[in-house]
Amino acid sequence: MTELRGDGAATSEYRWALPSVLLGDGSAGGRVRRSTRDWIVDILLFLLACGLTFLSLIELRAQHPPEPLMFAEQVTGALSCAAVWLRRRWPVALAVVTGLLSSYLEMPGGASVAALFTVAVHRPFKISGPITLFNLLTLIPYVSLRPQTELDRTWTAALGVAIVLTVFAWGIVIRARRQLVWSLRQRADSAAEEAKRLERERIAREMHDVLAHRISMLSLHAGALEFRPDAPPGEIAKAAGAIRANAHLALQDLREVIGVLRHSTSEGEGGEGGEGTVPERPQPTLADLPALVEECRHAGMDVRLDLRADGAPEGPGRNLYRIVQEALTNARKHAGGAPVTVTVEGAPGKALSVEVRNPLGGRHGGLGVRHGARIPGAGAGLIGLTERAELAGGRLEHGATPQGEFVVRAWLPWPVETTQEDDA
């Protein structure tokens, strides 16, 4: 059986599976572990029941009832006060028994109030409502059977109704507040889980874009060595150095991604996020695009860059860089040796657009060059680029043209700067 603390807390394993239990709607008779706050509340309610019982005893002695009735009042009053400690385990049964005793006896009234309050807090209205109605009905035999004047009966009935309704309303308010707090905690947990999921997706996209670029470069250089085993030693050394450099960068990128994932996992398990934070490397922007093109040229690709956009914001510039990087990676995979044209245009207030175009199948004027086997691909790159563009508020299109080319086009918003410096 799942162990619950009296304040409604449970282990994280059952946090989502048992929301009703966390609100106090669990099955009766289950084991209850009281927290310090629960002990304080239970002691206060026990003292309240004892205080009301003592006041009833003083009033009864002033009325001089028969000895058998006085003895029954004292015994039931003491037992009812002791039974208050069972209110968390059997609240409904305690409310019914004490309410039934209060239909004629006066001293169990304090315990009846405590039991009614517990039912209102820990049970839904479909249970607490009938229990409250039952307590109201028990006032009828009490005011009718106990010897009192007509005026006393009226005041007793009015006071009893006021006490029952006040206690019930108080319990309903506390229950509603607990439900609100639980709902807010659940929403906060859901928001935290969603944030973690989005961060993992972002890391996965970055890992795919970066590692796919590095590994395709490795495959290109390795294919060149395989295709030209009799190349001059200088070219072989240059290709081997490029392979070593790209392998080192790929391992470094993978190490950083694993470090970020481990850090986020430790935070999710309750680790401190202030120390040991894994810093992210500066993300590339539009200004780094010429360096990317130059790196591809050193790897043997025929890339032509037409850059007609300067000063793009960091966000759109980074997304455009990743789009071009993935498009060049796909060109190396599926159209090795074909010339690639990259055209970038944009201005503030207009869309930042990019077009990456290359002939299909690595053919250019009937001649094609491919070093080694085709690099495998799952097609997830273009899907990720489409999602990236849509999340940035833009769109992306890709596909073959009737002219035998494969084209990737993307449009990203470039907002106008809202702040301008006044001319002095």
TrEMBL record:
<protein>
    <recommendedName>
        <fullName>histidine kinase</fullName>
        <ecNumber>2.7.13.3</ecNumber>
    </recommendedName>
</protein>
<keyword id="KW-0597">Phosphoprotein</keyword>
<keyword id="KW-0418">Kinase</keyword>
<feature type="transmembrane region" description="Helical">
    <location>
        <begin position="39"/>
        <end position="57"/>
    </location>
</feature>
<dbReference type="GO" id="GO:0005524">
    <property type="term" value="F:ATP binding"/>
</dbReference>
<feature type="domain" description="Signal transduction histidine kinase subgroup 3 dimerisation and phosphoacceptor">
    <location>
        <begin position="199"/>
        <end position="264"/>
    </location>
</feature>
<dbReference type="InterPro" id="IPR050482">
    <property type="entry name" value="Sensor_HK_TwoCompSys"/>
</dbReference>
<keyword id="KW-0547">Nucleotide-binding</keyword>
<dbReference type="GO" id="GO:0016020">
    <property type="term" value="C:membrane"/>
</dbReference>
<keyword id="KW-1133">Transmembrane helix</keyword>
<dbReference type="GO" id="GO:0000155">
    <property type="term" value="F:phosphorelay sensor kinase activity"/>
</dbReference>
<keyword id="KW-0067">ATP-binding</keyword>
<feature type="region of interest" description="Disordered">
    <location>
        <begin position="264"/>
        <end position="283"/>
    </location>
</feature>
<dbReference type="InterPro" id="IPR011712">
    <property type="entry name" value="Sig_transdc_His_kin_sub3_dim/P"/>
</dbReference>
<dbReference type="Pfam" id="PF02518">
    <property type="entry name" value="HATPase_c"/>
</dbReference>
<keyword id="KW-0902">Two-component regulatory system</keyword>
<dbReference type="InterPro" id="IPR036890">
    <property type="entry name" value="HATPase_C_sf"/>
</dbReference>
<dbReference type="InterPro" id="IPR003594">
    <property type="entry name" value="HATPase_dom"/>
</dbReference>
<keyword id="KW-0812">Transmembrane</keyword>
<feature type="transmembrane region" description="Helical">
    <location>
        <begin position="92"/>
        <end position="120"/>
    </location>
</feature>
<dbReference type="Pfam" id="PF07730">
    <property type="entry name" value="HisKA_3"/>
</dbReference>
<keyword id="KW-0472">Membrane</keyword>
<feature type="transmembrane region" description="Helical">
    <location>
        <begin position="127"/>
        <end position="145"/>
    </location>
</feature>
<keyword id="KW-0808">Transferase</keyword>
<feature type="transmembrane region" description="Helical">
    <location>
        <begin position="157"/>
        <end position="176"/>
    </location>
</feature>
<feature type="domain" description="Histidine kinase/HSP90-like ATPase">
    <location>
        <begin position="318"/>
        <end position="414"/>
    </location>
</feature>
<dbReference type="GO" id="GO:0046983">
    <property type="term" value="F:protein dimerization activity"/>
</dbReference>
